[in-house]
Amino acid sequence: MVVAMKQIHVVAGVIRDARGRILLARRTEGRDLAGLWEFPGGKVEAGESPEDALIRELHEELGIQATVGASLIRVPQQYPGKRLLLDARHVEFDGVPEGLDGQALAWVPQGDLADYPMPPADVPVVAALTQPDRYLVTPAPGDDEAWLTSLADALAHGVRRVQLRARDVEARRWRGLVARAVALSRRVGAEVLLNGDIAQAREAGIGVHLRSAQLHDAALQASLDDMRAAGHAIAASCHDAGDLQRAEALGCSFVVLGPLQATASHPGQPGIGWDAFSGVREHVSLPIYAIGGLAPVDIADARTHGAQGIAAIRGLWPGGNA
Ligand SMILES: Nc1nc2c([nH]c(=O)n2[C@@H]2O[C@H](COP(=O)(O)OP(=O)(O)OP(=O)(O)O)[C@@H](O)[C@H]2O)c(=O)[nH]1
Ligand SMILES: [Mg+2]
């Protein structure tokens, strides 16, 4: 009989100084994951609320008086021999943080967080702080100008990560649309990826979003190495733990997992639901967008279950019509 390991609830604080830099602490020698940087915090004790646990830990470890604010993300993560729930909260504080356990401290500008080696569970936490919480997937273009106007509208409403996707659009027309969509997105600093076509993505100077079947196609390895060497992002669509592990091994910077709910575009395909989503996400440390019948109102739920946010066609396309 397989007995599920008990999940250890750990609360950690996202602590900022007046300049917006974030406090990291270095795990001391002799503990697990020694030498790695972490968000200060620790385990919730029996009978303790997560808020009280975080206040206690930050007082013990840093000597500060904390006020616990909003939740950032809750990341379920498996380590060898242990299951963790890393529950990251925004924190305000009084006092001057000091490394009372002898741990080194660093105030890190948000954009430099990726330079600090951290435990696997922290990768989604850093992504939640620094990367978009929504990922627009474009619907197939009917009228080209209307499609571009809707894209511009979505960008004006704050979309900053876009996957250009169209099936059955003639190659020359699609090339033209991609070029114009890239120009619109660049103007506002949004990141663009192209669905499926590695060569075309390379040519357009953008990232590629792999279909799940492509994850398992060894013949693509060389062209993906080339994408990575050129500094272009690789993302992927995943349906199960096997896909996620493959995407992580390929060096994907983020993925989409679903369908979360049954959708009109995939009738008869049941959604996996949030609990199964959390269960699958434990096995990798990639940022994962949930997809399938979701909209911006679902982002808080997504974060509670360890997702980076939501990916959507209808839910993020102006007017909601594909
Ligand atoms: N505080 C904290 N712990 C983290 C982070 N990421 C991460 O994987 N962990 C893991 O969460 C677990 C609990 O952390 P901890 O060692 O700080 O627990 P604690 O303060 O209660 O102290 P303890 O060592 O006396 O039990 C450890 O296995 C640690 O490796 C993080 O960002 N912050
Ligand atoms: Mg601790």
Automatic annotation (TrEMBL):
Its EC number is 3.6.1.55. Its cofactor is Mg(2+). PROSITE patterns: NUDIX, NUDIX_BOX. Mg(2+) binds at residues 41, 61. It comes from the Bacteria. The keyword Cytoplasm does not apply. 8-oxo-dGTP binds at residues 27, 38-41. It holds the Pfam family TMP-TENI. It catalyses: 8-oxo-GTP + H2O = 8-oxo-GMP + diphosphate + H(+); 8-oxo-dGTP + H2O = 8-oxo-dGMP + diphosphate + H(+). InterPro entries: Aldolase_TIM, Mutator_MutT, MutT-like, MutY_C, Nudix_hydrolase, NUDIX_hydrolase-like_dom_sf, NUDIX_hydrolase_CS, NUDIX_hydrolase_dom. GO terms for biological process: DNA repair; DNA replication; thiamine biosynthetic process. One of its GO terms (molecular function) is 8-oxo-dGDP phosphatase activity. Residues 5-131 form the Nudix hydrolase domain. Keywords: DNA damage, DNA repair, DNA replication, Hydrolase, Magnesium, Metal-binding, Mutator protein. Belongs to the Nudix hydrolase family. This is 8-oxo-dGTP diphosphatase. It comes from Thermomonas carbonis.
